[in-house]
Inverse folding.
């Protein structure tokens, strides 16, 4: 899928279920947001938690992926679509079905990039969101 991976690693990553990649991607994205906010001056743990939660919500992630879609390469778009089209559990009351599935697509992309070791690309995508000031 992503042409910078060894065939062995690519095979291993393809075997990981979509929901597992999304779980990892959600954790990676939350850590990136928390790190950014903390280094940007948010010092109270309570405020840090509240601001982080606002950004990692399905609604916020759906908005974020809309900003990223134009800069994704074809392989990254395929990963996003894999997540967006995956069968998920119950949709939280705080988001729509579409928002939840778009967020899952973004989480799979972030999870895959992280597990593949492509932190450079992960940081590039996150930087775009920071520059757009999405919910920060």
């Amino acid at each position: 899928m992503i042409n910078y991976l060894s065939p062995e690693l690519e095979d291993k990553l393809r075997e990981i279920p979509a929901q597992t990649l999304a779980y990892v991607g959600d954790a990676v994205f939350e850590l990136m947001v928390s790190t950014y906010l903390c280094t940007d001056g948010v010092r109270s743990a309570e405020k840090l938690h509240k601001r982080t939660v606002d950004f990692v919500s399905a609604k916020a992630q759906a908005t974020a992926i809309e900003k990223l879609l134009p800069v994704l390469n074809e392989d990254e778009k395929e990963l996003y679509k894999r997540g967006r089209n995956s069968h998920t559990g119950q949709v939280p009351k705080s988001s729509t079905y579409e928002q939840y599935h778009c967020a899952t697509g973004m989480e799979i992309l972030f999870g895959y990039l992280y597990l593949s070791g492509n932190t450079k690309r992960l940081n590039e995508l996150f930087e775009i969101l920071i520059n757009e000031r999405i919910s920060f």
Remarks:
- The chain has one domain: 16-130.
- The mean pLDDT is 86.
